[in-house]
Write a structure and sequence with these properties.
This protein has 243 residues and is an alpha/beta fold. It is built from twelve helices and five strands. The termini are far apart.
């Protein structure tokens, strides 16, 4: 039996088989020198406060870090002593929506990821409409993430469309290549790895462009370098990542 207090995950998360990424924190979310996305972090860190927004909607392309931010918000809520639930709808779209969302209005924060995967389906839209009404009436917070803005999503239920636009809407901006290299180096430093600019650029030039896959590659390099007691050099990266 898992002790949900020690694991840092709510009983609901455990029952759904959902595990939050331990590395998904606001501190680990790289802010580019131009301060793009800095306002998003500020809004999310105060969402649970009395002055925070009840509803926040984040949207952006693949790999910009929306899943990271939603999971980071759950971690942040739990650190503050609150209750939170992260729901990756791309993985849960086959579930019965009314049953999945039942009782969540008792939590301080609910994070709905990949909303675009379930919209356009009558059962999901009815359940989400009911859920948003309950959350608003109970004064609880909702954080949503999707590939597109609320107005661009394929919503059939007009009343649900209005609910998606209730609060703040932010587009999460992608990092340029220089910022992605800097983000890789910062994450490597957090892992205790030394990643030179040259090797970071090499990884970026050969790997998938989105941040999630770049960081997954870095975790693999971390594990293998630890096992083999090797530094991160271009030949080592080539071998481990199959470039």
């Amino acid at each position: 039996m898992v002790d949900s207090t020690q694991s840092g995950r709510s009983p609901r998360q455990l029952s759904l088989g959902i595990q939050l990424d331990d590395d998904a924190t606001f501190e680990n979310f790289f802010i580019a020198p131009d301060r793009a996305n800095a306002q998003v972090i500020e809004v999310l860190t105060r969402q649970l406060s009395a002055a925070g927004e009840q509803t926040v909607f984040l949207w952006g392309g693949v790999g910009v870090g929306i899943s990271h931010l939603l999971q980071a918000a759950c971690h942040h809520a739990e650190v503050q002593g609150g209750s939170a639930q992260y729901l990756p709808l791309a993985e849960l779209q086959a579930a019965e929506p009314a049953a999945l969302l039942e009782g969540l209005e008792s939590l301080d924060l609910v994070c709905l990821d990949d909303l675009q995967e379930v919209l356009g389906r009558a059962d999901w839209e009815r359940a989400l409409f009911h859920f948003f009404n309950l959350m608003r009436d109970s004064g609880r917070r909702v954080l949503m993430g999707a590939r597109n803005s609320p107005r661009q999503l394929p919503v059939a239920l007009a009343d649900l469309q209005s609910r998606l636009n209730w609060g703040l809407v932010y587009q999460v901006q992608p990092l340029d290549d220089d910022s992605k290299c800097a983000a890789l180096q910062a994450r490597a430093s957090d892992l205790g790895l030394e990643l030179s600019p040259e090797v970071a650029r090499f990884i970026l030039s050969r790997s998938a462009r989105d941040s999630q896959k770049l960081f997954a590659a870095l975790r693999l390099l971390d594990r293998v370098s630890l096992e083999e007691q090797r530094r991160l050099t271009i030949p080592f990266v080539k071998r481990v990542l199959g470039f």
